[in-house]
Amino acid sequence: MGVKGLYVNPTTFVPLNQISENLSSEIATRQFALGGYTGFFNYLPDPDPILRKLGQDQSIYKDLRSDEQVGALMARRKNLTKSLDWDIEQGDAGEKEFQLCKRSLQILADRKNKVKDIISQSLNPIFFGYSVFEVVWDQIDGAWLPVKIQEKPREWFLFDTENTLRFRTQFDWNGVPVVGETADQKYSYKFILLQNEPEYDNPYGDKALARCFWPVTFKRGGIRFFSVFIEKYGMPFIFGKLPRGAKPEDHYDLANKLSNMIQDAIATGPDDSSITILETKSSNSGDLHEKYLQRCDNAIAKAILTNALSVERQGTGSYASAETGADTIEGNLSEEDRDFPTELFNQLFKWIVDVNIGSGLYPTFKPFELESVNQEKSERDKNLKDVGIRFTKKYFVGNYNLEEDDFDLSTNSEPGRTPLINPAANVQHPVVSTAEPSPTKLSAFRKFVNNIINRFDFSDNNEKQTFAEQITSAIPEKLLQFAAEETLRPVVELATKSNSYDDFRNKLAAQFPNMPTDQFKSMLTKVLFIAELEGRFDAQSKK
Predict the structure, then answer these.
(1) With 80 as the cut, is the pLDDT of residue 92 above it?
(2) Are the CB atoms for 151 and 130 separated by under 8 Å?
(3) What b-and-e string marks burial along 132-141, b requiring 16 or more CB atoms within 10 Å of the CB?
(4) Is the Cβ–Cβ distance between 357 and 96 less than 8 Å?
(5) Rounded CA separation 40/133 (Å)
């Protein structure tokens, strides 16, 4: 039997076993590309051009946070995610896995390691490229649970030629691997690495503060220059004049006297001398510096928020439109940034389940934004309440994101207001529910229908039952609620006592003045149907 393989070109045949080896191995590596030379210390320096040229580490970026624009925009970017609510979704995980993960966050909060603080630290890779978190465990009630999650200084870590994270120790400057397959067993379940847009040639990630370095540097230098400029040219300039033949001693004496005027504003001089105060009439120089600072602030805003719409100083209309555009962009940033805390907590939950249970089924961490109150829905519910309908706590919890303990429902009618469903009687109205009315509540209505049907002659029970179902189906759901509370009877009696259709309509409108038009028409039609049945009975009984 011949050797199996493929012709990669018309003249070259490659056996199948060699193809498999090539497919499962990595060819383009640093060792092959650089001829086996990967550096003297076998680690990758941070390729950040600013750090390389200055010979500094990331500590210089921490200093940028003291700038008022950088600090404010960093807090603003973080608050987009920190302001979100969060929950733990059980998913396919069992109750035991879910409760363990839920309890772990409670333990962290009890030990002053709040979730919002962890979320804030997990967002630092946006500004510094990457972050490393160490997890400290403790055995509590027979289960190993994290009791502390702490972000560690980035200066303590580096990446090697395999893009593996290493921890520098006092005994090993090249560092020991703490994450990945090559990590020592004692570092298992200890370190979590978060990276912002890492690349093969840059595992240190993308740093937003790197794009803020020069704007902040120029801004600080510009302020120093402008302070000197104001001191020299911002104040009035006093020019003293002496006759052309005056001696140098006279000039020195006048200059000293003018200098003393700064404190006492008093000076003397010869009769033929004069003093002129020179002032800068133009404000363009100050405007230039304002534009210079604004240019630096805009560059910082673009680096951190990816836009400068909300910080640009424009007219009222353009500023309002810029705010709208900025809100849209920041909403997109929030959706992207929440991936960092989600990745951190999901990795933590995976470790908790693997260490204690090993089922392979994990709960998930989910940040989410609370929906704003639907104005249309709330207005509709208010109108329904005004006509006497009462909602359950379950309805408010499900539709308005409220907690049952946060509110209470009054069981009494509001003082001074008469219920609109039946203004003749100050009665409590039924609670609207999605469930069908119970037989007990419908007993009055069924008794009413049966009293009508029993007065007719039917050939068999099936015909009688069909007729009863037709009557019941003809009554709308809201009308069934009226019937359940025996409030339908006065309406039917109102119809039977009316002399004409117009008479009944006017009386019904007077009794329900605030009822919506559609509901009024529906009630009018259905009640007339029942009243007609009563009329037929009366006509038949007189025969």
Answers:
(1) yes
(2) no
(3) bbebebeeee
(4) yes
(5) 28
- For residue 69, CA distances in Å to 16, 83, 107, 120, 220 come to 61, 21, 36, 19, 12
> Which long-range contacts does 323-330 make (Cβ < 8 Å, 24+ apart)?
329/305, 330/80, 330/305
Convert the pLDDT of each residue in 7-62 to its tens digit: 767 777 777 776 666 666 776 776 667 655 555 567 888 999 999 888 888 889 99
R_g (Cα) of the chain, nearest Å: 41
Q: Is the pTM of this model over 0.85?
A: no
Any long-range contacts for 475-481 (C-beta under 8 Å, 24+ apart)? 475/445, 475/526, 475/530, 476/522, 476/526, 478/519, 478/522, 479/522, 479/523, 479/526, 480/437, 480/442, 480/445, 481/430, 481/432, 481/437
pLDDT value, residue 441 = 44
Q: Which one-letter amino acid corresponds to residue 172?
A: D
The CB density around residue 499, as the number of other CB atoms within 10 Å, is: 7
DSSP H helical ranges for 135-265: 213-229, 248-264
Residue 136 pairs in a beta bridge with 148
Q: What is the pLDDT of residues 132-160, one digit of tens each?
A: 999 999 999 899 999 999 999 999 999 98
Of 490, 496, 491, 489, give the one whose Cα is nearest residue 451: 489
Give me the amino acid identity at 519. Answer: Q
Looking only at the bridges linking them, the beta strands covering 85-89 and 43-44 are unpaired
The pLDDT, as a whole number, for residue 215 is: 92
Q: Angle, to 10 degrees, between the axis of helix 68-82 and the axis of helix 316-337?
A: 60
Encode burial over 102-129: b for 16+ CB neighbours within 10 A, e otherwise. Answer: eebbeebeeeebebeebbbbbbbbbbbb
d(CA 320, CA 326): 10
Distance CA 217, CA 211 (A): 11
Cα–Cα distance between 323 and 336 in angstroms, integer?
20
Q: Two tokens at 25? A: 């191995």
Tokens of 161: 């030629």
